[in-house]
Amino acid sequence: MGGDTVLAPMPGLVRDVAVTAGQTVQEGDRMVVLEAMKMEHVLRAPRDGTVDSVMVATGDQVTAGALMVSLEADT
To answer: How does pLDDT run across 36-47, given as a tens digit for each residue?
Structure first.
């Protein structure tokens, strides 16, 4: 995870997307649940901010490094 993005740490299936564009999040908030290797991995907000865009939906298959969520730039 970078400061402004949430990337898939490994290939997997998106089980849940807990945020929408325009939503305010705090560091540590759940953003996406990814199922990989028969385990669920909760991907959390890397910092406080506003969700700029969500590039995945529940049921999507993603590859390692895929951009899943981006946050608006700090102002």
So the answer is: 999 999 999 999
Please report the pLDDT score of residue 73 as a whole number.
Answer: 77
Do 61 and 75 touch, CB atoms closer than 8 A? no
List all residues 6 or more positions away from 18 whose beta carbon is below 8 Å from its beta carbon: 29, 30, 31, 32, 33
Neighbours of 60 (CB within 10 A): 17
At residue 60, φ and ψ (nearest 5 deg) are -70, 145
- Which pair of tokens denotes residue 35? 């199922």
pTM: 0.89
- Sorted by where each starts, the structural domains of the chain and their CATH numbers stand as 5-71 (2.40.50.100)
